Amino acid sequence: MPDAAWRRKFQRQILAWYAGAARDLPWRANRDPYRIWISEIMLQQTQVATVRGYFQRFVAAFPTVADLAAAEEAEVLRLWEGLGYYRRARQLHAAAQKIVAEHEGRFPRDFDQVLALPGIGRYTAGAICSIAYDAAAPILEANTIRLHARLLAYREDPTKTAGQRLLWSFAEHVLPDSDISSFNQALMELGSEICTPRNPQCEACPVATLCGARRQQAVAEIPAPKKKMKYEDRLEVAIVVRRKKEVLLRQCGPEERWAGLWDFPRFHVASEADLLSGELASQFHARTGLSAAIGSRLTTIKHGVTRYRITLHCHEAEGASGRLRKDETAPLVWASVDKLHDFALSTTGRKIARLLAK
């Protein structure tokens, strides 16, 4: 670990830089732990530019923990629609209910109590407690992992156990005795805006003279690159079933990709030849209770989900007849096309809904 003189200089220069460089972000308007919590969950694997609008709409709809706890999950998911990683929204809702039930609706101050909330790990608990309460809690997320690895000239994979242990230790080692709220935000800001993955602005960095990677002329090689994700191609079909001005929607079950969201009945198929086979019609009948032929194609949507690259063909159903199957875990409903905006739809479901609205 760096010595005390290095640490004091680092703290001083980081805080001085942040005083003039901090971005004007809506969740920085005050140190309300509820708003900080919402922003931290939204910012997981999502860009700041995307989160701004979602954050403002979300806190306008649910200004307090109690408001969020009292909301229907469908309403929470509807406001989250488009942000992805919907498990975050469901855990946010569950955590709000736990705060109301166990903490009288007040966001807890104790680190361990914050850590015990659904969807909150060590980093998020540290971010909330340090930013809201000035608690001496270290933080380590994507931006500070990169920043700290470069400061220490750590050439191994920082996401492995040894790297994580070192970087968490460093994050704790550099904490100042006061103004930890600004300090931790400054670290994240520096990683996000200056110490970027590619083409970092070393000439504008307030701690460039303290950086081990720069001293070794190894900034471009640190941190060690992650192994590239191996993607699997997948072919799926969404079926649009019409009944006058209504279409059939299905709510995704608890173990499905978009649990809790609504979508058009959707199926995985092995090949293009399966689209017109009786097997797909048979799967459609088993899932919905309706008999129908697979008709013309409305559109094709290509998108990625985790390790899959998905080609989604959207087809009309022809001659649909029968009675809807009852399934409490994945309900089916007829929805008016002009009311589809009221449903929390999957990303591709929303694209199909827009097409139908035209």
TrEMBL record:
Its EC number is 3.2.2.31. Residues 42-193 form the HhH-GPD domain. SMART domains: ENDO3c, FES. Binds 1 [4Fe-4S] cluster. It comes from the Bacteria. The keyword Repressor does not apply. Keywords: 4Fe-4S, DNA damage, DNA repair, Glycosidase, Hydrolase, Iron, Iron-sulfur, Metal-binding. PROSITE patterns: ENDONUCLEASE_III_2 (PS01155). Its cofactor is [4Fe-4S] cluster. CDD domains: ENDO3c (cd00056), NUDIX_DNA_Glycosylase_C-MutY (cd03431). The keyword rRNA-binding does not apply. It catalyses: Hydrolyzes free adenine bases from 7,8-dihydro-8-oxoguanine:adenine mismatched double-stranded DNA, leaving an apurinic site. One of its GO terms (biological process) is mismatch repair. SUPFAM superfamilies: DNA-glycosylase, Nudix. Adenine glycosylase active on G-A mispairs. MutY also corrects error-prone DNA synthesis past GO lesions which are due to the oxidatively damaged form of guanine: 7,8-dihydro-8-oxoguanine (8-oxo-dGTP). Belongs to the Nth/MutY family. This is Adenine DNA glycosylase. It comes from Blastopirellula marina.
